[in-house]
């Protein structure tokens, strides 16, 4: 059954992922210009962009367990795509804060980062994503070597945790959503750990085209 599903999924998944990344951005921009983001449009933009960054980061972390279960090594390219998409949404989240919220007031931004712990943790989550985005190419894997590249990309776990903590501390009343996101990441971390463990006959073999680029992260 998996074999029958593989071909259409492989053909359609990248266009579907592009729509997943781009359509929410178009909708948010349209809502902003049409004044449909409520009484606090900037806060709404910050909230939505941050949530999309977390969603796409979770989606990128879900790809490796999916590859382990299905043997679809070609999904590694989609994992890189989703990781980069998460980074660009996080960059959009930060840009809304810097440009629309603070109007490039750098002394106030630095003061905010040092004063409010949730902003400090959010900045940490973003900064940790930078080396992951910069080394997301196949050439980076070859230059760093598989082992060092895997070690570097374990930073994604720290970034994900920091992102969830940032969200949790930033929310003042309803904690249900940040707790839900944290629970999703806990499940993903557990799946990745369980599926990495060798079974009674040794480690689960990887598809040939994923043997170099399938990281621990």
From TrEMBL:
One of its GO terms (molecular function) is FMN binding. It is found in: Cell membrane; Membrane. Binds 1 FMN per subunit. Binds 1 heme b (iron(II)-protoporphyrin IX) group per subunit. The chain crosses the membrane at residues 12-32, 52-69, 81-104, 116-134, 155-172, 178-195. One of its GO terms (cellular component) is plasma membrane. Keywords: Cell membrane, Electron transport, Flavoprotein, FMN, Heme, Iron, Membrane, Metal-binding, Transmembrane, Transmembrane helix, Transport. The keyword Transport applies. It holds the Pfam family Ferric_reduct. Residues 50-164 form the Ferric oxidoreductase domain. Its cofactor is FMN; heme b. InterPro entries: Fe3_Rdtase_TM_dom, MsrQ-like. Belongs to the MsrQ family. Part of the MsrPQ system that repairs oxidized cell envelope proteins containing methionine sulfoxide residues (Met-O), using respiratory chain electrons. Thus protects these proteins from oxidative-stress damage caused by reactive species of oxygen and chlorine. MsrPQ is essential for the maintenance of envelope integrity under bleach stress, rescuing a wide series of structurally unrelated cell envelope proteins from methionine oxidation. MsrQ provides electrons for reduction to the reductase catalytic subunit MsrP, using the quinone pool of the respiratory chain. Heterodimer of a catalytic subunit (MsrP) and a heme-binding subunit (MsrQ). This is Protein-methionine-sulfoxide reductase heme-binding subunit MsrQ. It comes from Gemmatimonas groenlandica. The lineage of its organism: Bacteria, Pseudomonadati, Gemmatimonadota, Gemmatimonadia, Gemmatimonadales.
